[in-house]
Amino acid sequence: MSSVAIQATGIEKWFGEGDARTVALRSVSLEAYFGEMLYIVGPSGSGKTTLLSVVSGVLRPDAGTVSVEGTQIWSLSPNQLAELRLHKVGFVFQDYHLFPRLTTAENVAIPMILKKQPWDEAVSKAHEYLQIVGLTKREDLPPVKLSGGEQQRVAIARAMAAQPDILVMDEPTASLDGDTGHGIVTFVKNQILNDKRCVIVVTHDSRIYDLATRILKMEDGHLATVTKGEVS
Amino acid sequence: MKGILKLAYKLLVNDKAKFTALLVGITFAVVLMLQVTSTFIGMMKRASATVYNIGAPMWIMDPAVQSAASAIGMPDYVLDAARSIPGVSYAVPVYTGNTLAKLHDGTYQPVTIVGLDDTSLYGRPKLLEGKIEDLYGENSFVVVKDGDYPKLENPSVGTEFEVNDHRGVIVGIADVASGGLFGTPTLYTTYNRALQYLPNPRFTISYVLVQPKSANDIPKIKEQVKAMGYVALTRDEFVDRTSSFYMWQTGLGINIMIMAVMAFIVGLSISGQTFYTFVLENIDKFAALKAMGANSRELVMMILYQAGFTALVGYGLGVGLCSFMITMAKMRLPSFASQLSFVNLGLGLFMVVVIAAVSSYFGVRRVLKVEPFQVFRG
Fold it and tell me: What does the pLDDT read at residue B55?
């Protein structure tokens, strides 16, 4: 068994109050390990993205604890939590959230800039990450000039540029065709898992299930079923 | 922090439409504010033109005098008494009055006559043509070459005119620090000739000009003059009194102030709204930065930098545009009174900083409240 990257225990999360209260997570517990690609799957509204947000230090749970590499993240101050996300967690958002007013290379450089690297150095390094994801000669273009698949790869390069121990991906293939989506996730798996990092993917795209090390299924706020074997 | 600020800069200036709209808003506000305040300052300077041009350090006058243009005649003993005050180096009379000059073509032109002390010609202007001693010649006048000079048909040395059926002749053309406010050409002559040419009431001294022996003597001189029932003001105090009169007792100042406030509100509305919209449109980007690990301080610095940068660039453009407009106007209209000064430049800068602060305040509030979770919601 590899070491634990994330351990979440008894997570509960609800939105709204009174009659309008919606329970998103009901006493959810999970562990994610270094060296695995963990999928969280399930129908829309089952709480997958909420769970991903809670375990990655983006959304505070109403109950339960989350530890990232042994640190109880929800007892940290907001600035400490931001620092932890900056150094430990990389994000690939469903809508990419690239900055349209920056070039592709500048987008990739953002995590390094947040880590106080000099601008030119960060942008130069970003070129290397873009090469890794196969986007040469696109460095100076704005993201809007790129295809959906290319934008997704920029988002991945940006997440990799943070050199995170844990990479979280929210519906990474949602707007990609089957081959492109599969290719991108395969690429991430090869890149990240070679370094024994942890990847958590939220998806309901069954075309990429074969790439998972382990799959957890969510239903109505519960982690319902483990549909793929334990970590090897 | 430098990298974050560069990121803020790029997000701002690369959004060319928004950045232009922001700059237009701030520049427009600055031009409006500077234009109205510089007009006011220019007018105030011109209202005190006599004080600046004659340049005496102290002025004795009737207490009821509210501005330099509304002299009230004083009896001769005031001059004698002033000369006897310890601490006064010397004191001379000056006459200022208005009348009509009949020009060569038979038309009448209102003019301001300044009568300088016959002995010393204290307060005489700098001559561009002619000699000041010629003022002692018969019927002699020196004309000031300012914006109103053409109204006397651009006289040269030797040009003749009439004042109250008396012959006058130009013996010199002078330059002064400031043109007058009321659009009348100015003629300098001697005190006694001014009294001969103009119909006068019983008391004829408009002001007694005083040169104190030292700055320490000024309070004592003021005290002694007050004891006589008159008032002695330093040059700056007289200028302030004149400005206060126009500011508070003519409606001019209040109207200018209202216009400046309106310019400020317009600028604040345009810039504030545009900047807030800019922040709102980028709110998901700020949320993404938050999720990626940017802390609140960095996001606040980004917004302050964007607001500050826009404000300063807009201010610079506004000052440049306003200077250009004033320069162009002065080339076409010699009497154009607007004048930029450190006071209104400082005021403009202060107002721009307030606009930036208010605009960024709402942006900062919004960004601090945004949840990084928002980026997962799509």
Answer: 86
Of A59, A78, A97, the CB nearest to B373: A59
Which tops the pLDDT comparison, A19 or B139? B139
What's the confidence (pLDDT) of residue A1? 45
Length reported for chain A: 232
- Based on the fold, state whether residues B207 and B130 are members of the same structural domain: yes
How many domains would you assign to chain A? 1
For residue A202, the chain B residue with the least C-alpha distance is B376
**ipTM given for this complex:** 0.87
pLDDT range class, residue B45, cuts 50, 70, 90 = confident
Q: Where are the alpha helices (DSSP H) in chain B?
A: 2-13, 16-47, 49-54, 76-84, 191-197, 218-227, 235-249, 252-281, 283-292, 296-332, 342-369, 374-377
What pLDDT is stored for residue B147 in this prediction? Answer: 83
A58 → closest Cβ in B295, B296, B376: B376
Chain A with chain B: Cβ pairs closer than 8 A: 93
The answer to whether residue A231 sits within a structural domain is no
Examine the domain organization and report whether B300 and B222 are in the same domain: no
> How does pLDDT run across B295-319, given as a tens digit for each residue?
989 999 999 999 999 999 999 999 9
A39: CATH: 3.40.50.300
Q: Does B296 touch chain A (CB under 8 A)?
A: yes
> Would you call B110 helix, strand, or coil by DSSP?
strand
Instruction: Supply the range of the domain harboring residue A38.
Output: 4-226
Burial class of residue A80 (count of CB atoms within 10 Å of its CB; 0-12, 13-18, 19+)? middle
Q: What is the mean pLDDT of residues B191-202?
A: 89
> From A55, which residue of chain B is nearest by alpha-carbon distance?
B373
| Pair B37, B137 in one domain | no
Q: Chain A: nearest CA to B270, how far in angstroms?
A: 23
Same domain membership, residue B93 and residue B142: yes
Separation in Å, CA of A58 to nearest CA in chain B: 6
Residues of chain A where predicted confidence (pLDDT) is lower than 70: 1-2, 227-232
CA B192 to chain centre: 33
> Mean of the pLDDT values across residues B209-231?
94
Q: What separation, in Å, do the N-terminal and C-terminal C-alpha atoms of chain A show?
A: 7
Put simply, whether the predicted model's pTM sits higher than 0.90 gets the answer: no
Residue B170 pLDDT more than 50? yes
Residue B300 pLDDT: 92
Cα gap B276→B269, rounded to integer Å: 10
Q: Does residue A4 sit in helix, strand or coil?
A: strand
Q: Which residue of B has its CA nearest to A52?
A: B376
Structural contact between residues B132 and B171, judged by C-beta atoms closer than 8 angstroms: no
Would you say residue A51 lies in a domain?
yes
Task: Judge whether B236 lies within some domain.
Answer: no
User: A114 lies in a domain?
Assistant: yes
Is residue B55, in this structure, part of any structural domain at all? no
Confirm whether B356 is domain-assigned. yes
- Residues B190 and B221 both lie in one domain: yes
State the residue range of the domain holding B156.
Answer: 75-229
**Smallest Cβ distance to A101: which of B15, B289, B296?**
B15
